[in-house]
Amino acid sequence: MSPHSLRTWGWIHKWSSLICTLFMLLLCLTGLPLVFSHEIDELAGEHFAAAPLAADARPAGADRVVAAALAAHPGLVPLYLFAEEDDPGLWYAKLDRDVASDERNAVLVAVDGHTGEILGQPDFGSGVMALMYRLHVDLYAGLAGKLFLGGMGCLLLVSLVSGAVLYAPFMRKLEFGCVRRQRGPRIRWLDLHNLIGIATLVWLLVVGATGVVNTLGDLILKAWQQEQMQQLAGGRGSTLLAGDAGHDGSVEQAIARARQAAPGMQVDMVAWPGTLLSTPQHYAVILRGETPLTAKLRQALLVDPASGEVLQAAARPWYVTLFQLSQPLHFGDYGGLPLKILWAALDLLAIVVIGSGLYLWLARGRRGARP
Question: Where exactly are the transmembrane stretches of this chain (predicted)?
């Protein structure tokens, strides 16, 4: 590589890194506890859990869950029903005064799906973990904050690629992994910065790329939903399951019909007719896979409450699949606690890389100021 090319790549690496450094450091610091958010909520007593189901007992069912939530909050109507992925017996019912509301004053109720008992009202928007999540996701700036962090993530990817390009010429006269301890602290930190950076390069690329995709999540899902609704409105939806005269219009029957049309999947969420995520004539049943990988891939079906007919607008496009896979991969949420521990260790190493890069730039400035 020519000296001119080296200087160009060095300039790209320096400024792409410096511009995003503070924000990447913030994301690494806030992302560390978010990796263990489920475990932290359990330790803090903020995690609801369903009672064990007796061997000869039957679960309460979705209809009884909704009835219990409505009985605890008279005058409200159901909007959504969410299934807890980590606890199959736990449900969250979202209620409001009207299905066409903006959901700002909606109430979320945790219900035991085994006994039908009310467990409480979770408040996911308060506490330390909620603060960490908002800082990590959008800096409390909504969509603008997400897009800004997405831009910082793109700069991170540029700095990683340019750093990898510079690594080979830099190490041409040194052994791989060499840390020149006999030299001054700046040289030692330079060698450690390069070593840890190249060792965690693939992980940093994966986390950085999935983070950028996640910042576009709202736009991706809204575009997909609008496309689906337009296809259904134009009569271009496909029927997966024909109507059934024995359908009683209940949410439990809607879930059963959706699972019958898509075997091997389980319910993730149900949206009532007229809500933001459905049509005025259908339940929207969101299903997810049953394996650790496919559990992150969701499929939306529409169920007619009068006939039980199951419709699908279109197959999930590739960009939605990419987004759905990137969310859990970003936080290491595929392989249970061992993978989370690995993600946390790599996150700590990333903090060292970012901190050492900032130190090297500041130390270089002080060195240049000396006579």
Answer: 147-171, 192-213, 341-362
